[in-house]
Specification:
The chain has four helices and six strands, in the order ββαβαβαββα. The chain is an alpha/beta fold and 144 residues long. It has a single domain, classed as 3-Layer(aba) Sandwich (Rossmann fold).
């Protein structure tokens, strides 16, 4: 469990649920550079527990599909039961053929890894209904 905060230039909070520590850190750095407050979790159950704290309700949730324990689809379904207005973006390294299309609850977007920072920023900030505040890249990265 980790919480990183920035100057909150955009006054938005993003919950990142990603089991790969390096990717979780880079996503957090990028969003912090963009002015978001960032909350990170490594698996779905801890993310759901985090949502029980009213101070930790994010403006957007970015989650991997392939997580230990509860996968991203189940996490999405659980989130939608209580928080219908929080955009949820799924990330995956799976090919298009392996992404479930017959799920009853759909995400707001799906991003395929490796994710370009421009696609990430455009998708997330459009869903949060704000202009992309910063084009900075963590450690010179172009893709995550």
């Amino acid at each position: 469990m980790n919480q990183a905060s920035s100057n909150s230039v955009v006054n938005k909070t993003v919950l990142i649920v990603e089991d790969e520590p390096g990717l979780r850190k880079m996503l957090g750095q990028y969003l912090s550079l963009c002015g978001c407050s960032v909350i990170t979790e490594a698996e779905g159950r801890s993310a759901l527990n985090r949502l029980n704290n009213p101070d930790d309700i994010p403006d957007l949730i970015l989650t991997d599909i392939n997580l230990p324990g509860m996968d991203g689809y189940e996490l999405l379904a659980q989130i939608r039961l209580k928080y219908t207005d929080i955009p949820v973006v799924l990330m995956t390294g799976l090919s298009s053929e392996n992404i479930k299309s017959d799920i009853s609850v759909q995400p707001d977007a799906i991003l395929r890894k490796p994710i370009s920072l421009s696609d990430l920023g455009e998708t997330l900030f459009n869903l949060m209904k704000i202009d992309h505040p910063n084009q900075s890249k963590p450690d010179g990265a172009d893709r995550l």
